[in-house]
Amino acid sequence: MVSKVLLGVTAVAGAIMASTAMVGSPVASADSYAGETYGDAASALSGSGLTAVVAGRVGSELPTDQCIVTRSQKAPWVKGDNFQQTNNTVLLFLNCNAAVATAGKPGNSAASPEGQQALKDEQSYEWKSTTEDGAAWCAENMKAHPTWTGNAFDGCPGTGT
């Protein structure tokens, strides 16, 4: 008799755990704003009719518009009355440390993947903005690839970036 009761309790507990795992487990999704600057993310959100709110911030080396979004999430609250409830707020968590650490200024290690990328980006910017070869590369690629986006043309003369 005890083994039947124990078997029944085990079966019920297993069913509850299985249903909780299926219903309660979070679904992984890509964070479309992670890695963007706050300025770019806020602009994109605004263009979509959403409101960006800084929910957390690490560091203070960069102006807010240049801080990097580490993650974002839809705000957990809902606004409105019973007929029209909306949630148009996106919470942004920022890293405002420098791209690469220097003496007395926090940032990514120059040996880290993020620091290495930041150094490469900085060198590319300087090459494009200060050398004839860089300017020629810009002119050629801006004409050949008008749909390139992101920071491909950062540092190119006449782009303002």
Characterise the protein shown here.
The strands form 2 sheets. The protein has a 3-stranded mixed beta sheet with strand order 1-5-2, with helices on one face. The N terminus is likely disordered. The chain has 4 helices and 5 strands. The longest helix has 23 residues. A hairpin with a 4-residue loop joins strand 3 and strand 4. The chain has 161 residues and is an alpha+beta fold. It folds into 2 domains: 70 residues; 53 residues, no CATH class.
Outline of this structure?
The protein is an alpha+beta fold and 161 residues long.
Keywords:
two-stranded antiparallel sheet, disordered N terminus, 161 residues, 16% strand
In percent, how much strand structure appears in the residues? 15-25%
- Element order: H for helix, E for strand: HHEEEEEHH
Shape: flat
Q: Helix count, per DSSP?
A: 4
Give me the secondary-structure topology.
Layout: H1 2-24, H2 38-47, E1 51-58, E2 68-74, E3 79-80, E4 85-86, E5 89-95, H3 113-130, H4 132-144
